[in-house]
Amino acid sequence: MELIWGIRLNEVLLLLKQIGLAILGAAALWGFVFSIRDVRRRQPKNWIIDDWLSMQLFNLFLIGTAISSVAFFASLPTIRALAHEGVAVAATLPEIISTFPLMNGLYIFLILITCLMMLFRVSKEEKFSYLLTPFFAIAFLMAFIMTSLSAWRGALDSVQIFHFMHGFHSIFTLGSVIVLDFLFLISYRSELLKQHVYSLFPAISKVIWAGLSLDFLSVFLISEYFVVTEKFLFVQTVIAILIINGALLSGPIARKMMGSIKDHVHPITANWRRAGNIAGALSITSWITITTVDFFRDLTLNYMELIWLYLGFFTLALVGHLLFEYIESQKGPLTLSNEEIYVVVPVRK
Amino acid sequence: MFSFLRSQINYIEIILILAGISFFISTLYIWSGGGLSINYIAKALYITGTVLLIFKK
């Protein structure tokens, strides 16, 4: 069923499945990093904060799991009905369908262990806190397998390796960018949280850069299949913007932000803060754009129409960021409640 | 302006920015009927910059 501009319903569902998997995979990865980081620290105050952050990432994990699971199970009837369609190097529908038996099992297992963790969260908070580290590790491995297995060709050839790498890089790129933005937003009102979140910026940036490298390496495997279209040229333009913006965001802008937290003698100026907002909104818009466009094979929009749409979404993301900042600035500083500290304190003694 | 930028950006970030600019040039080159050669250079620059960034002390 075609929705608009040549976009089909089954393509939207597969896109949502991939975005959901990227979010849950990245939330599990960085949740695991935060939850294991507390063990290596000596000062009690520090590991409480790291644990608290990993628990906040569990909320993002739930959002990713819900989006991905609903999209996957909703896609089953629509994709099976359209199984005769399929083109070129992009995964054909029969190749996508051949992963479904395994994906069904993995999704059911993921939903079950997530429900179990939610039960622990409600009834046995200490157990929930204790099990969060191994849970995130298992969930990350599952998300890695599920994103890699977007299609199965029946043989381990160069196109199949391309499908693997083109799938799992979303956890390290799109997913990690969303996690970064999430952490940035939840730490906005607390200097203590900022210290913990900002200290992980360089590591997250490296993972994002490496993720895109893996995607580029995977594209080398299928270079003979390249077809120059307006969609391809648009994606190349967005990648150019994304790289230049990323170099500035993870370089001078991130250094200014980290410096402002380290010593309060040099607070971040309004210009740098503005630059941070613009670069952050541009980054998330660009990642979502290249992931989205990738899923819509028969998009009827031309280059300029895609550019205008991209700029429209960037403006929305920027306004959203500024609005969030304004709303947060009207509130008082964020502090951990006694209940929240109680959840993370007793189990790590 | 240039000296300000230079003081804020290190050599790895310059390589990555050059990779981004190469992608722009590559887009124009492909659009005008050229092949993927500049695109490969852009990707090689990007991967070089990323490797340097990851192993930077």
Topology, element by element:
The complex is a heterodimer of chains A (349) and B (57).
Chain A: E1 2-4, E2 7-8, H1 9-40, H2 44-81, H3 93-97, H4 100-123, H5 125-148, H6 158-186, H7 191-198, H8 201-220, H9 230-262, H10 270-295, H11 303-329, H12 338-344
Antiparallel strand pairs in A: 1-2
Chain B: H1 2-8, H2 11-31, H3 37-55
Helix pairs in contact in B: 2-3
How many strand elements of chain A? 2
* Average pLDDT taken over every residue of chain A: 80
Order of helices and strands of chain B: HHH
Net shape of chain B: flat
Quickly count the domains of chain A: 1
Work out the largest interface and the residue count of each chain. Answer: A-B, 29 and 25 residues
Number of helices of chain A: 12
Distance N terminus to C terminus of chain B?
A: 28 Å
Low-confidence stretches of chain B: none
Q: Which strand order do you get reading across the main beta sheet of chain A?
A: 1-2
Q: What structural class results from the helix and strand content of chain A?
A: mainly alpha
Multimeric organization? heterodimer
Instruction: Work out the strand percent of chain B.
Output: under 5%
Tertiary shape of chain A: globular
Q: What count of helical segments of chain B does DSSP give?
A: 3
What share of residues of chain B is helical?
A: over 70%
Report the major sheet of chain A.
2 strands, antiparallel
Q: Summarize the helix and strand pattern of chain A as letters.
A: EEHHHHHHHHHHHH
Q: How much helical structure, as a percent, in the residues of chain A?
A: over 70%
- Cα(first) to Cα(last) distance of chain A is 56 Å
